[in-house]
Amino acid sequence: DSITYLKSDKAGARISGIGSPRLSVGHFRNDTWGDYTRYTYTGCDAVVVVTVNGQTLVLNGPDTAATQALYNTLVAKIH
């Protein structure tokens, strides 16, 4: 349904999953997306938000350049 690139976001509360100095992965809840799935590197603020059939996935690469490249690849695949 949509793919969005954001320079930063607020993860909200982790409901289940793992959090480490490097990764933040699992089921989260925040005011922006409600319940959603997150696969992100903690050292990178930029994220790609993918929403399909009411389900939201937030992901990124290890740095801003990798996250921008991920966004560009996904957009190219769907258009």
Explain what the structure shows.
The model has no long low-confidence stretch (mean pLDDT 96). Helix content is 19%, strand content 49%. The protein is an alpha+beta fold. The protein has one helix at residues 64-78, and strands at 2-6, 13-19, 23-30, 34-41, 47-52, 55-59. The protein is built from one helix and six strands, in the order ββββββα. Strands 1-5-6-4-3-2 form a six-stranded mixed β-sheet, with helices on one face.
Task: Provide keyphrases for this structure.
79 residues; alpha+beta; six-stranded mixed β-sheet
* Poorly predicted tracts of residues: none
| Percentage of residues assigned to helices | 10-25%
Continuous helix count:
1
Task: Characterize the largest beta sheet: strand count, sense, and whether it forms a barrel.
Answer: 6 strands, mixed
Gap from first CA to last CA: 12 Å
Shape: globular
Class by SSE composition = alpha+beta
Short characterization:
The protein is α+β, with helices and mostly antiparallel strands and 79 residues long. It has one helix spanning 64-78, and strands at 2-6, 13-19, 23-30, 34-41, 47-52, 55-59. 19% of the residues lie in helices and 49% in strands.
SSE layout and pairing:
Layout: E1 2-6, E2 13-19, E3 23-30, E4 34-41, E5 47-52, E6 55-59, H1 64-78
